[in-house]
Amino acid sequence: MAKTSLDKSKIKILLLEGVHQSAVDNFLNAGYTNIEHLTTSLDEASLVDKIRDVHFLGIRSRTQLNERVFAAAEKLNAVGCFCIGTNQVDLNAALSRGIPVFNAPYSNTRSVAELVLAEAIMLLRGIPEKNARAHQGGWLKSAKASHEARGKTLGIVGYGNIGAQLSVLAESLGFNVIFYDVVTKLGMGNANQVASLEELLARADVVSLHVPELPSTKWMIAKDQLALMKPSGILINASRGSVVVIEDLAEALAAGRLYGAAIDVFPVEPKGNDEEFVSPLRGLPNVILTPHIGGSTLEAQENIGIEVSEKMVTYSDNGTTVTAVNFPEVALPAHPDKHRVLHIHDNVPGVLSEINRVLSESGINISGQYLQTNEKVGYVVIDVDKAYGEQALEALRKVEHTLRVRVLYSETNFEG
Ligand SMILES: NC(=O)c1ccc[n+]([C@@H]2O[C@H](COP(=O)([O-])OP(=O)(O)OC[C@H]3O[C@@H](n4cnc5c(N)ncnc54)[C@H](O)[C@@H]3O)[C@@H](O)[C@H]2O)c1
Ligand SMILES: O=C(O)CC[C@@H](O)C(=O)O
After folding, report:
1. ipTM
2. How far is CA 117 from each of CA 166, 199, 207, rounded to the nearest angstrom?
3. Is the CB of 295 within 6 Å of ligand 1?
């Protein structure tokens, strides 16, 4: 029988888009030495080529993982998104191949909230235009249309981790906070939920968007919604570029129907720092344009590096999938004296009983079993006596509807 074990030093990890060094250090400390660390993303063709022998892949927001890429990823065990958003990944394509996807749901929350708050103050004071004039040798000393944040209404659309964090910081500065969310939530401090997006847009002086990219949030702010905002209103978008119809925003700003905007995310973003940034918002006076850096602080990137690599190492060493965004979540204890078999299968009736039948007929004693399913996939983890690791792997490979099987030996990590 061919040996199926794979030493940790042979487990290939590919990290793209300048994932922080803290992730590399974490993998190395855990014994994973086969790491390729690139500062750029890869286009589809290069990725399809490169991913064939990759076991763990780390990306940020730019790398697109679609069906074609997953089809080529024969050895891929897990994906780590070193960011919050996972819209760049076809989560179903990953799931149907038994590949969990992890992200960092909190690590850059504070960075985004701080930037948004700073932008709100700058825009309320008309700083972008005053700053630009001064750079050109001008002197725009005037209080016209300049306002304090105190007493103004901040409307937050999407009151999740970032929205709620922003809410706390904004109240401490004197903003009245209202928010709109599809889920009923208790506001932090004195923040109040409003019943509709329309009400929020009409009441707020500053509107800040913090929704994920979903079919329901796509182009949610267009001409009709912008028309509901006050002419003195300010729009901030640090969520996803697909949430705002950028041409409609540019038109409203140019026509003076909106006072200012700060935009960090765009429907089309340059693929790298060498590519020209093209946008109808370029050149407009009270507009702050930033290159998708809401979460790009050294603090956040270091924390993200640690958080996501820890999840990938834990999955690789122990099988735990807690916080995976697309996968049944199983929290597993250590398995010092047992071999552990990870079996991922289509979630159809009868697979678990077939697994148990096969193990029992092979004379394999089960010392622990954990199961979790979602609508597509079942994930069963079976601890077996040390004598049976490879035997169990061989037996379980033959079970119909198997997507992937791995054995984690008590000391070293092996793949099937
Ligand atoms: N600019 C950046 O660098 C940067 C950094 C981090 C995150 N982000 C983006 O910000 C988004 C939000 O991050 P988060 O951590 O706060 O996410 P989150 O999941 O904690 O919160 C999102 C909130 O939006 C709500 N929501 C969903 N659909 C909605 C709708 N149609 N209308 C109103 N509310 C809706 C959800 O109920 C949830 O409360 C991320 O998905 C990511 O795309 C951008
Ligand atoms: O770091 C990135 O590339 C994306 C950051 C942000 O959009 C996120 O989703 O966390």
Report:
1. 0.99
2. 7, 22, 11
3. yes
